[in-house]
Automatic annotation (TrEMBL):
Gene3D superfamilies: Mitochondrial carrier domain. It comes from the Eukaryota. GO terms for biological process: nucleotide transport; transmembrane transport. Belongs to the mitochondrial carrier (TC 2.A.29) family. GO terms for cellular component: membrane. This is Mitochondrial carrier domain-containing protein. Solcar repeats lie at residues 10-100, 126-213. SUPFAM superfamilies: Mitochondrial carrier. InterPro entries: MCP_dom_sf (IPR023395), MCP_transmembrane (IPR018108), SLC25A32-like (IPR044712). Keywords: Membrane, Mitochondrion, Mitochondrion inner membrane, Repeat, Transmembrane, Transmembrane helix, Transport. The keyword Transmembrane applies. It is found in: Membrane.
Length: 287
C-alpha cells in the first residue's frame, strides 16, 4: 500500500506540490539572471572579441531601456511555466517510478520469514541504482513534456522585444514557431536535452542524501519516529540547493541547447548538434 502523510495525501502529490512551489519561487527570484545567462550563452561567440558580454553589461543594457522592469522580466511566462512544470513533473514521475520499483521488487521477493503463510513480503529498500533509474525516467519524461516551453523561453529571453524577429509574447511566439517550423520546431534541442537528463540524476543525487540527513537529524532531536516526509519549506530549500549543483554540473549542455533553440541557430552557429557543437568549441576558444 502506498504510504501517505498525516493529511492523507500520497507522497507523489506531496512531492509534486513541493516541487511546484520550489520551481515557482526560484524562477520569480532569479529570472533576470536567467535572461543574463541565456544572452551570454547565445551571443558570446558573435560579439567582438574586445566587447565580450558580461553579467554587468547585460544588466546595464536591460536597465537602460524605456521599460527596465519589463525588460528584466521579459519571457517570465514561459520561464515560470516551464520551471514549475519541470519541477512538479520531475518529482511526480520520480515518486511513481520509485513506487513501481518497490512493487516490482516485492513481487519477486521471498515471503516474509516471520509469517511464511501470510503472503506478505519484507519491505524493500531501494538501492542507489534504483534511485538513479527512477530519476532518469523522471528526467526523460519531464524533458519531453517541457521542451516546447524551453524553445519559446530561449527565444524570448535571447532578445529585446523591439529586436527584429523577436516574439512579443509566448503565445504569439508559439504561433509563429508553428507556422515557420511546424511541430518539429518545438522540439529543437531535444536530443541535447535528453543528454542533459543527467541534470535530474545529479539533482537527485544531491537532494536524496540531504533529505535523509535532514529527517535523521529531526528524528534525533524529537525522539519520535517520523513518517518520512519533510515540511514544504525544507523541501524548497533542499530542492533549490540540489538544482543549483546540478545546473553547474550540466552547464555546457545548457549552452549547446540554448544555441540550438535560437531562431537564428543555423545562421549564427551552424546546422544541427555537430555544427553548433564544433562552432561553440572553435569560436569560444578564439574569444
Amino acid at each position: 500500500m502506498t504510504k501517505s502523510n498525516d493529511a492523507g495525501r500520497s507522497p507523489a502529490l506531496v512531492e509534486t506540490v513541493a516541487g511546484l512551489s520550489a520551481g515557482t519561487m526560484a524562477t520569480l527570484i532569479v529570472h533576470p539572471l536567467d535572461i543574463v545567462k541565456t544572452r551570454m550563452q547565445i551571443h558570446r561567440s558573435i560579439t567582438s572579441p574586445n566587447a565580450t558580454l558580461t553579467t554587468v553589461s547585460v544588466i546595464r543594457s536591460l536597465a537602460r531601456t524605456d521599460r527596465p522592469l519589463a525588460a528584466l522580466y521579459r519571457g517570465l511566462t514561459p520561464n515560470l511555466l516551464g520551471n514549475a512544470t519541470s519541477w512538479a513533473s520531475f518529482f511526480f514521475f520520480k515518486s511513481l517510478a520509485e513506487r513501481a520499483l518497490i512493487f516490482a521488487h516485492a513481487r519477486y521477493a521471498a515471503p516474509s520469514s516471520s509469517n511464511p503463510h501470510s503472503g506478505t513480503t519484507t519491505p524493500h529498500r531501494l538501492t542507489p541504482t534504483d534511485f538513479f533509474f527512477a530519476s532518469l525516467a523522471a528526467g526523460t519524461a519531464t524533458q519531453i513534456i517541457t521542451n516546447p516551453i524551453w524553445v519559446l523561453k530561449t527565444r524570448m529571453l535571447a532578445s529585446d522585444s523591439s529586436a527584429v524577429g523577436a516574439y512579443p509574447s509566448m503565445w504569439t511566439g508559439a504561433a509563429r514557431l508553428y507556422r515557420a517550423e511546424g511541430i518539429k520546431g518545438f522540439y529543437r534541442g531535444l536530443g541535447v536535452g535528453m543528454l542533459a537528463v543527467s541534470h535530474g540524476a545529479v539533482q537527485f543525487a544531491v537532494y536524496d542524501p540531504a533529505r535523509r540527513m535532514y529527517l535523521a537529524r529531526r528524528k534525533r532531536q524529537s525522539g519520535v519516529e517520523e513518517a518520512g516526509h519533510m515540511e514544504n519549506e525544507a523541501t524548497v530549500v533542499l530542492s533549490t540547493v540540489a538544482k543549483l549543483v546540478a545546473g553547474a554540473t550540466t552547464y555546457p549542455l545548457q549552452v549547446l541547447r540554448s544555441r540550438l533553440q535560437h531562431y537564428e541557430a543555423d545562421e549564427m552557429f551552424g546546422r544541427g548538434v555537430v555544427g553548433v557543437g564544433v562552432g561553440e568549441w572553435t569560436q569560444d576558444q578564439a574569444v
